[in-house]
Specification:
By secondary structure, this protein is α+β, with helices and mostly antiparallel strands. It folds into three domains: 7-64; 73-163, DNA polymerase, domain 1 (Orthogonal Bundle), CATH 1.10.150; 182-353, hpI Integrase, Chain A (Orthogonal Bundle), CATH 1.10.443.10. 50% of the residues lie in helices and 11% in strands. Strands 1, 2, 3 and 4 form a four-stranded antiparallel β-sheet that branches. A three-stranded antiparallel β-sheet has the order 5-6-9. Helix 2 runs antiparallel to helix 3 (89-107). The longest helix is centred in the middle third of the chain and has 20 residues, at 133-152. The radius of gyration is 30 Å and the shape is elongated.
Length: 395
């Protein structure tokens, strides 16, 4: 009988001296419950009635549990944080915020065994429909991590996320990215330089001067190349060809999962980008500084003090604090829009050449429709020329 979920509890009775109670543990959508009934004089009768009751509950979809099995999704999340304790503080904050905003309100108080495949599929479909592409991908990654953690520690026998269908064709963006002003870019560089100067003066400021200078170099590379933040922070020293003076973008850094994506976003993202003598001098100076700091040259171009790769989320945190302080809305991805706009409208760059430089498919309409912003001043200059042309007609 020990193989059955029904348990028998002995109870003392004034009238009958000893009676028996059947009970079993099970999960429902809201929590953990014990159903029991007292007053059986026969152990066998108590067990048989308990088994009948258990079968009735099973037909209603209950999920049986062990007596000491009490793990909710919130518990699994806390366990996952311990397993991934090596992650940076920026990544930990992002994980907490993402869980509290997108997962906890729906599933947080649910016991891990009660969450069904169709419920998870509805959640994933909703994210795909109503969030940005990057939010959708990171949420799905976090959801997979939660159930991988539960499976690794033995709280579930199968991972339902392996059976989920992750929809394709998500929205590329839900809003138009703003075009950064020259003054904003200069102001942010000065803001980062002020952070460098703060190092050593404030003992509470634990970030090293070397790391902040690394983020400043990442900003400069993003401004020069128009590369994505994951592409910049994924650069290794062997991706920098000093002889031919070019960056070789061959991988992208997924900072949520802390893994390299050698396939990158698409086939066009694998590209070479030439740099000038000024950038070469800046990179050589950074190389010398890195060797002095570590005593050797790490594989990654941007390296943290603990010898791990610099986290792009730290750069995003700097930008958030900058935006809050100066009431701006600057983001690293805006550097890509700035690069495309200036080269398209100020430098009259050939569209096909521009697409190769920033990693778009040649012939794609994304470069012009999304990344190249026609300013009000350019519109005004264009209309003034047109008005001069039609003046004889009007007169």
């Amino acid at each position: 009988m020990s193989n059955y979920p029904v348990k028998i509890l002995e109870r003392k009775s004034k009238k009958h001296d000893l009676t028996y109670t059947w009970y079993f543990y099970y999960y429902d959508a809201k929590g953990r419950h014990m159903k029991s009934k007292s007053g059986y004089l026969s152990y066998e009768e108590a067990f048989n009635d308990g088994l009948i009751a258990y079968k009735e509950y099973s037909e209603k979809g209950i999920v049986p549990s062990r007596e000491n099995d009490k793990k909710s999704l919130d518990d699994i999340f806390n366990l996952m944080l311990k397993d991934y304790n090596h992650q940076s503080n920026a990544t930990k904050r992002d994980t907490n915020n993402r869980y509290n905003k997108y997962i906890k309100p729906l599933l947080g108080n649910r016991f891990i065994k009660t969450i069904k495949l169709n419920e998870l599929q509805e959640v994933v479909n909703d994210w795909n429909k109503n969030t940005y592409s990057s939010v959708y991908e990171h949420n799905c990654s976090l959801l997979r991590k939660l159930f991988i953690t539960a499976r690794r520690h033995g709280y579930i026998s199968e991972n339902p996320c392996e059976l989920l269908v992750y929809p394709k064709g998500r929205k590329k963006t839900l809003r138009k990215t703003k075009m950064p002003e020259n003054e904003d870019l200069k102001l942010f560089r000065n803001y980062m330089l002020s952070k460098v100067n703060e190092c050593g003066k404030d003992k509470r400021y634990k970030v090293s001067m070397y790391e902040i200078q690394g983020h400043l170099l990442a900003f400069d590379i993003g401004l020069v190349t128009g590369a994505r933040i994951g592409e910049v922070y994924a650069l290794d020293w062997n991706n920098i060809n000093f002889e031919e003076m070019k960056f070789e973008f061959r991988q992208s850094y997924d900072y949520m999962s802390k893994v390299m994506n050698t396939e990158m976003k698409n086939q066009y993202s694998r590209r070479d980008y030439p740099f000038d003598q000024d950038m070469k001098n800046k990179l050589l100076e950074w190389k010398s500084m890195t060797v002095d700091f570590f005593g050797y040259l790490p594989s990654s171009l941007l390296t943290r003090e603990d010898k791990d790769r610099l986290d792009p989320r730290a750069m995003q945190d700097y930008m958030k604090k900058f935006n809050k302080k100066y009431d701006k809305s600057l983001s690293f991805h805006q550097l890509r829009h700035y690069f495309a706009t200036v080269n398209r409208y100020e430098n009259n760059a050939d569209l096909a050449m521009l697409q190769k430089l920033i990693g778009h498919a040649v012939g794609s309409d994304v470069t012009d429709s999304v990344y190249a912003h026609l300013s009000d001043q350019k519109k005004r200059e264009l209309l003034e020329k047109y008005n001069e042309h039609i003046k004889p007609l009007l007169n």
